[in-house]
Design brief:
47% of the residues lie in helices and 16% in strands. With 393 residues, the protein is of the alpha/beta class. The chain has a single domain (1-393), classed as TIM Barrel, CATH 3.20.20.70. The strands form two sheets. It has an eight-stranded parallel beta barrel, surrounded by six helices. It has a three-stranded antiparallel sheet with strand order 4-5-6. Helix 1 (19-27) links the parallel strand 1 and strand 2 (32-34). Helix 4 packs parallel to helix 6. The longest helix has 37 residues, at 348-384. The two termini are 32 Å apart. Mean pLDDT is 86; it is low at 339-393. It binds flavin mononucleotide. Flavin mononucleotide (FMN) is lined by residues 11-14, 16, 36-37, 90, 116, 118-119, 161, 191, 199, 225-228, 249-252, 254, 393. Flavin mononucleotide (FMN) binds at residues 11-14, 16, 36-37, 90, 116, 118-119, 161, 191, 199, 225-228, 249-252, 254, 393.
């Protein structure tokens, strides 16, 4: 048994996985939370500051952007009284020595160090990090080995998050998994898509039994990631693959951080509580807004009003106006749960196909809304030159 065994986890998400999201995820049932990816070189410029007022531990960039001290140069913030024992820090790296030096900076404030070997975005891969590491397994292996041997000094587990190498042939991924497991890591998370697949594409789970066997034979715990959006799916996957399998949720939690509960909240309640949580840890308002715009259905008349909000207080006063009207609009997560429940009630014969068709139509609808929202978002964010709390993925 490791820290990761059988856990339901919040995925690493740049910008969307800052402290307020992690606090809500934990409150509503996540067992472990991942930090957004932070690049080794960035972390190496940080100093650790205990923030007595908030009860947080802050990592602030020395010589960083001092426009708003403690805000514009804040790289990472954790609230130990809630996150302690449950926080995995994800590092972006392509260098075994830098990885260890950076890990040492945060080691005593986090419960595990995870290496990002799955991000396919050019800014990450062009410097050899993220999914580029899947093509340089020798380098990835030496990063993990270095972290494992140094991690022992801090008594901190090391893990890695990868993608599938091939969606038709299990062998390349199984061989890589075996190799990585032999570095001494404690956990491996697999995003069940290849680096060329987009999040809207269905994950490939066909090779899971073999990959899970490979992890277990090396005494490494395993977490499934990709298109899991709620606790019921986690329970279904555990009954299929074993109770020691963990699951990790990204986009589901981005749109509703209460999805870890069997009864997630409706979006009006999510948004209000999110802003209150953000305010309680002085989260930068630009980031609060970025996250809640992902929680609000695009068709809500409140969307544009939130998009114009400037401070956490302003956002909260808009949230207070939503009232019960927000109960009628369900989020992506709740819709999926409803579908799961319908599935149980549908007659066997045509029910499954109908459900799949509805699911596809729903996905299509969501994609259109999502693209529209992201565009609206970009315009809004560019206009305001909103500061980014962490480096973009
Ligand atoms: C907004 C956002 C930011 C992300 N940032 C990271 C990251 O920092 N590190 C990482 O390994 N993956 C990152 N990912 C990928 C997710 O962790 C996850 O692997 C992917 O979204 C698939 O999971 P899902 O189907 O539950 O969304 C990010 C995804 C999203 C949507």
């Amino acid at each position: 048994m490791s820290l990761y065994t059988g856990k339901l986890c919040l995925a690493p998400m740049v910008r969307s996985g800052e402290l307020p999201t992690r606090l809500m995820a934990l409150k509503y049932g996540a067992d472990l939370v991942w930090s957004p990816e932070i690049i080794d070189k960035k972390l190496l410029k940080c100093e650790r500051v205990v923030n007595e007022n908030l009860g947080t531990v802050d990592f602030v960039e020395v010589g960083g952007n001092y426009k708003i001290p403690g805000v514009s140069n804040l790289v990472f913030r954790t609230l130990p009284k809630v996150e302690s024992g449950k926080l995995i820090f994800q590092i972006g790296t392509a260098n075994p020595e830098l990885a260890v030096s950076a890990a040492k900076i945060v080691a005593k404030d986090v419960d595990g160090i995870d290496v990002n070997a799955g991000c396919p975005k050019p800014f990450s891969t062009h410097s050899g990090m993220g999914a580029a590491l899947l093509s340089t397994p020798d380098l990835l292996e030496s990063i993990l080995k270095n972290l494992v041997s140094q991690g022992k000094i801090f008594n901190i587990p090391i893990s890695v998050k990868i993608r599938l190498l091939d969606d038709k042939d299990p062998q390349p991924t199984v061989e890589l998994v075996d190799r990585l497991c032999k570095t001494g890591i404690t956990n491996l998370t697999l995003h069940c898509r290849t680096k060329d697949m987009r999040n809207r594409q269905s994950p490939v789970r066909a090779f899971l039994p073999e990959i899970i066997r490979t992890c277990h034979s090396n005494n490494v715990s395993f977490i499934i990631n990709g298109a899991i959006t709620n606790r019921r799916e986690y329970e279904e996957l555990q009954s299929q693959y074993g109770a020691d399998i963990g699951c990790m949720i990204a986009e589901g939690a981005e749109s509703n951080p209460t999805c870890f509960s069997l009864q997630p909240l409706t979006w009006n309640k999510v948004v209000k509580e999110f802003i209150e949580t953000a305010e309680s840890v002085s989260n930068y308002a630009g980031n609060t807004k970025y996250v809640i715009l992902n929680q609000i259905p695009g068709k809500s008349p409140f969307y544009q009003r939130f998009a114009r909000g400037k401070t956490n207080q302003e956002l909260l006063s808009i949230a207070n106006e939503i009232g019960e009207s927000g109960n009628k609009i369900v989020t992506k997560v709740l819709q999926k749960i409803e579908l799961i429940e319908t599935k149980k009630e549908l007659p066997k014969q045509n029910g499954k196909r109908k459900l799949e068709e509805e699911d596809e139509a729903q996905k299509e609808k969501e994609n259109v809304i999502l693209t529209k929202r992201k565009l609206e978002h970009k315009v809004e964010l560019n206009a305001e030159k909103v500061h980014q709390v962490a480096s973009p993925l």
